[in-house]
Amino acid sequence: MTDLTDLRTFVAVATSGSFTAVAKRLSVSPATVGRRISALEALYATKLIERTTRSHRLTEMGQAFLEKAIAVVEAADELEDMSRAEGAALTGRVRVSGPTTLGIKRLGALVVAFSEAQPGVSVELSLSDRHVDLVREGFDFAVRIGELKSASLVARRVGTYRFVCCASPDYIARHGAPETPDALAAARCVLNLNLVPRNRWPFVGADGKPFSVEASGTVEIDNGEAQRAAALAGGGIIYAPRDLVADDLASGALLPVLPDWETLSLPIQIVYPSRRFVSRRVRALADALAVGLRER
Questions:
Q1: Binning pLDDT at 50, 70 and 90, where does residue 191 land?
Q2: Answer CATH for 161-265 from 3.40.190.10, 3.40.50.1110, 3.40.50.300, 3.30.70.240
Q3: Is the peptide bond before 197 cis (omega within 30 degrees of 0)?
């Protein structure tokens, strides 16, 4: 009889492409992962994965086996979920990916609140501005900023991510504040490498139409906290997420620049792999984050 743990391990390896990554995710040794795969191959008397010292790939039988294995694992998960009473305590692990600034400023606190309400659920929150491969890297869902680009994912909009132009009082005292977006071409700006292109800053005109202007600057940074630090030090004008600088704007450490001009806003979305079944614990965490991230 097939061991469900072996089957889960095979699916994880087949979708991630890495024995080592799966071992780390499952908190076992790479040798244990290998033994589980070997046990399946011995049980079915077929080679599922061709392994070399440097890489591995699914065999033709392994490809066919993977499709059925995913269906079995998801069916087992669904049966386990159905067998629990609706009001029963949630248990298990949820892996979530999120963007760095939003994660630091908001997601971390929301996850802690959820953990206190659901102590039986273990949550792993991984923060990166890279769009992870949810299936390959074993995440249950991701919180992402911007429009959905992949048709293989399912998205749920939960909020809006807003940007703001700002600078320190010292910078404004020394250089003045631009009166129109076009004046940014002659200003000293700290360019945000996470914007594409980095030297074109988007605004919305009085007619509601979006446009972008050239921003001039010799400092380019790909990290939000470093951009904030540069602005606080008087290094120039930044175009940054409002979440990142909200406290500084409230205290006066940073001042709004071009406050009468509407800046970029992007959707915050919870994104799932396009699988049919989502467990109760995953739904519960996603719902908690959705409530915390809704418009405010």
A1: very high
A2: 3.40.190.10
A3: yes
